[in-house]
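Can you give me the bound-state structure? Components:
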Amino acid sequence: MNLFEQVTAAPPDPILGLTEAFRNDPNPDKINLTVGVYQDATGTAPVLDCVREAEKRLAAANGSKSYLPINGHPDYIGHTQKLVFGEGDERIQTGCIASAHTPGGTGGLRLAGDFVRQCLGQRTIWVSNPTWANHQGIFSRADLDIAVYPYYNVDSHDLNVEGMITVLEDIPENDVVLFHACCHNPTGVDPSEEIWKTIAKVCKERRLLPIIDFAYQGFATGWIDDAVAIRAFSEYGMEFLVCSSFSKNFGLYQDRVGTLHVVAKNPGESKRILSQLKVLVRTNYSNPPAHGSAIVSTVLNDRDLTQQWEEELKAMRTRINSVREQFVDGLSKAGAPGDFSFIKEQMGMFSFSGLTPGQVQYLRDQYSIYIVKSGRINVAGVNDRNIDRLCSAIADSLKM
Ligand code: LMR
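Here's the bound-state model for the whole set.
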C-alpha cells in the first residue's frame, strides 16, 4: 500500500473553491460574485493609488529583507493599534494591549483560537448563525468546540436581537464568543450602537470572553465609526481580543496583513500574553510577512498618503452603496417576485440575498453565475456590464 493511499480527498473550500470553478467555466458571460474582494466599476480588483505610491517609495528605499520581529514591526503595530482603538486610547499608552502582526485576519483568528485554547484552556467558542464559512473550520482546527447563537431573522431580513441576547445570557461563564465588528459576513446586518452596548453589558455580566473579527473596518460608514463594537466593549472595561485586517480596506488581500490584539487589564498581563503569542507564532509561521505591513506603515506615516487612503476607502464604500440601489432597482425591473429593498440596508461588501442553495445552483448551472451557497452575493462584483443579466437570471431562478 502507498503511504498516501489513506489520504481522502477534501471538499473544495465553500468560498475560494468557487473561484477555481469559475476560472474553469468557459462561458464568456460568466459572473463571479463569490469571494469578498472589492472590484471597481470595470470588474477589476484595483491596487489603491496610495498603495502604489507606498510601494514606489519602499522600492526606492531599498530596505532589508531580513526577518521581522516575531510579533511584527513596532511601527506597524503602533499604527494598527491606533486605527482599531483610537489615537488617544490610554491602554495603548500604558501597554495594556498585546498585539501581533498576523498573516491576514484569518491568521489572527487562528492565533486567537490557539491562544484561548492553549493559554486559557477554553473549550468552546460561540459563533453567530450564520457566520463566515471559514470560522468554524479555523476554530475547530484550533481544537475548540463550536456552538452557535442566533443572529439573523430570515423572514424579516434583520437582526434577531432578542434571540441573540437570550442565548448570550445563558452561555456558561468564561466561554469565548465571536462577534463581527461591522459588515457582518455573510448577512451585512450589524447591531446598532445601543445594541452593541447591550451585548457588551451581557458579556461583562456573564464573564464571557469576546473575540471581535474586524475584517471590514471602513466599509460600513467610516473607519472611525466602524469601531463602535470596540468602543462598547472598552467602555465596560472588558478583556477581549480583536482580529483586524488590511485585506479589504487597503486592498492588500495577497499580502496577508492583519493583527491580533489582546486587550488586558494591566501591562504586566499584556507582557506575559505577548510572550505567549510569540511562542505560538514562532512554532507556527515563525514571523510575519513584511511587505504588506511596510505598505500600511508607509501610508499611515505620511499625512497626504493617509488622506488619499481615506478618500479611496470612501470611494469603495460609496460605489458599493450605489450598486446596492441599482441592484434592488434592477431586480424589480426584471420582475423578481418580492421586495428586495432590505438589500439597501445591509452593510459592507455582501448582500445576503435570501436565495436558496437550489436557486444558487440553478444560477450556476443555467447562467454561469457564481454565488456562495448561503445566497451571499459580493455586491462589489456587480457592474454596468453584468447587472441586467444578473437581475433577470435571479428573477428566473426565483420562479423555479
Ligand atoms: C470572504 O468571505 O469571501 C472573504 O473573507 C475572503 C475569504 O477568505 O473567504
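A couple of observations. The chain is about 45% helix and 15% strand. The mean pLDDT is 97.
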